[in-house]
Amino acid sequence: MKVLVVGANGQIGKHLVSLVQDNDSLEAKAMIRKQEQASFFENLGAETVMADLEGEVETIAKAAEGVDAIVFTAGSGPHTGSDKTLMVDLDGAVKTIEAAKVAGVKRFIMISSFDTRREAIQAAPSSFAPYVVAKHYADDWLRRTNLDYTIIHPGALTNDKGTGEVNAAEEVERGQVPREDVASVIVASLENDSTIGKEFQVVAGTKPVNEAIKSL
């Protein structure tokens, strides 16, 4: 299975491309914005493609040519304003979903926020609410498609080394999770068709990733 990683140069994205390239049944195609980002992925033996989430749907669709799945791991980051949140986390996500349709790619995995329900928007601090809003509507857009989607809602992300063990369910107690373990959860979701049409929260836990995903 060939996987287009959108947001490949992000922290989850880099972990994901590394794990995919180490997996005999998967192959990564890293979508990047700048040519200088390519060497990291080329050193892993991964193909790279240039495309900007603030560009046209057709450009993203062209980047998705020849792949079997798309994983959206992109994010505007905590140091940008609401404008970038709108352009990347909402519009960029929706354009990627539409690009999947154009390119004929059915499998789509979205990395969302821990809780994107309406109640979470109302409860979020004013500085964080625009991000939750963006994720809320991007998730909803994906649910309304006929794509084979999975929506992953990770807890507070850390750069701790992954343990390979998580707690994953439709609803779990809020907590932290290493980015490396989120990447492992994505790989397990790609390998388990039982995750199609599902969404779940994931935090650090005590169950091996593959076991946790299979039990969803």
TrEMBL record:
| Pfam families associated with the record | NAD_binding_10 (PF13460)
Residue ranges constituting the NAD(P)-binding domain according to the UniProt record: 7-192
Q: What InterPro entries does this protein map onto? A: NAD(P)-bd_dom, NAD(P)-bd_dom_sf
Q: What is this protein called?
A: SDR family oxidoreductase
